[in-house]
Amino acid sequence: MAKKPTKTTDSTATASTSPALASATRPESKKAQLIGMLRQPDGSTISAISVALGWQAHTTRAAITGLRKGGHAVETAKPADGSIGLIYRVDSKTNEQADGKTSTEVAQ
Fold this sequence. Notes:
The chain is mainly α. It has helices at about 10-25, 30-40, 45-55, 55-70, 105; strands spanning about 45, 75, 85-90.
């Protein structure tokens, strides 16, 4: 038995244009925000990142570990003022793109 031909409606035409509009207005990803915070000259702390991204501390630490596994060189340092916690920082590397992806991630 042959399939009946499907009818196209105007709703399919508008549905095909909405993803293009959605991608143009999509906010910056949390991973990109995290990398941006870590690229600041003074770096950032777990608590500052957690508040800014709405994550719990263990989620923030896991995301930083994911960045390390992804090829980012995440450095840690003790605060100069002697406060509790660590400062996390990422140096901009030549093989990173503007969105924070390494050349390895782009190849996948």
